[in-house]
Amino acid sequence: MNLFAFDLSFSDISHSAMWIVMLVLCYGLAIRFAKWTNQHILAHPILTTTTLLLILTQLIEPDVGQVMTHLHPIKYLLGPLTVGLALPVYNQFPVLRELGIKVIIPIAVGGLFAPLSAFSVLYLLGAEPAWQLTILTKSITTPFAMDTATMLGGIAGLAAVFNIITGMIGVMALPSVNRLLQINDDKANGIVLGTIAHGIGTSKAVLLSEQSGAFASLALCVNGVGTAIVLSVLLG
Amino acid sequence: MIKRFLQHIGTLIVLIGAYELGDVASVVIPLPATINGLFILLLVFAVYGKVPAFLNAVIPLYLGHMSMFFVPAIMAVWLFQQAVYDHWLALVLALVLTTIASMALVMWVSNTLLKPSPKTNSDPTDQSPQ
């Protein structure tokens, strides 16, 4: 993806600038709204920002595809920012070295079961192949999911949506899963949230306890990088 | 103020540089540009022996606000409204049931392999990526 992939006219630049300002304003409002609701999962800034921006799109320029083109510089920057995940991955190395296989096995089990089970459901119910490939990335951190989905022949936007829904379900279902299995342990909760509910789950895990947060970050990094590599090598 | 500004410029140069190198590398290594870029940056950290201070100061801030950068791509769901409506049952099953089943499985395996630990106090200061 190239930052300068489209023809730059004055009109393009001014439209891009206008939509980027609107996006930032909507995001600012979304952050305040999330704080106001005490970080309720349904008030997640991604949901609020997207909803506000779609409403503005319908009022100003009903062609959503055109608005997405105007926001191309923001979409481009997601790539370099994703590379910044190297920092948390690097910081998790000591924990990974200490716990080794004991922590890798549950992450690998989730990393395999979550995408394959979702894929099987869509396959058996006859969804389009592009959707089946897209849902394989539902449990890895959103930027990797979008990139990997594109590489597999899936749809990046849909990957982001599947991802965010999965993250929210993960956070909402955790207390029920705790009750069902009668397990409520910080390490297990962290690994579950990071492996299955990626970044959204990790944000929840740090609210549960410091230890849950650390295990969730580790699981997010290992599953994100591991699944992206496995899927790209096998299907890319 | 100027130092902070330079930290941001430096971080952006490093991140964009690593990403673009990762993009070039993806011609040879069949992985997404972001993953290749991430490995290039990890290699730099490993060679340098630690994370350079300016990156440590700025990257967590960027990761904490990464959600905003997903929005342009997520807007595409508007273009798939009809398809989402057509497949709603399959999607509910694939997203809800399999997520809960995966959580139960991972929780059981984690609990079996790692001994339960006592509860610790919460510290909600992390800036996690989305």
What does this structure look like?
The complex is a heterodimer of chains A (236) and B (130). Chain A has helices spanning 10-36, 45-60, 64-70, 72-83, 86-99, 101-124, 129-135, 142-152, 156-181, 186-196, 198-208, 210-235. Chain A is mainly alpha-helical. Chain A folds into two domains: 10-78, no CATH class; 86-235, no CATH class. The radius of gyration of chain A is 19 Å and the shape is globular. The model of chain A has no long low-confidence stretch (mean pLDDT 86). Chain B is mostly helical and 130 residues long. Chain B folds into two domains: 1-68, no CATH class; 76-114. In chain B, helix 1 packs across helix 2 and helix 1 crosses helix 3 (53-64). The two termini of chain B are 28 Å apart. Chains A and B meet through helix 1, helix 2, helix 3, helix 4 and helix 5 of A and helix 1, helix 2, helix 3, helix 4 and helix 6 of B.
Shape of chain B: extended
Q: How many alpha or pi helices of chain B?
A: 6
Distance between the termini of chain B: 28 Å
How many DSSP-defined strands of chain A? Answer: 0
Q: Could you state the oligomeric state of the chains shown?
A: heterodimer
Summarize the structure in short.
Helices cover 81% and strands 0% of the residues of chain A. Chain A is mainly α.
Layout of helices and strands, plus pairs?
The complex is a heterodimer of chains A (236) and B (130).
Chain A: H1 10-36, H2 45-60, H3 64-70, H4 72-83, H5 86-99, H6 101-124, H7 129-135, H8 142-152, H9 156-181, H10 186-196, H11 198-208, H12 210-235
Chain B: H1 2-25, H2 33-48, H3 53-64, H4 67-74, H5 81-86, H6 88-113
Helix pairs in contact in B: 1-2, 1-3
Question: Keyphrases for this structure?
Answer:
heterodimer, A: 236 residues, mainly alpha, 12 helices, 0% strand, B: 130 residues, disordered C terminus
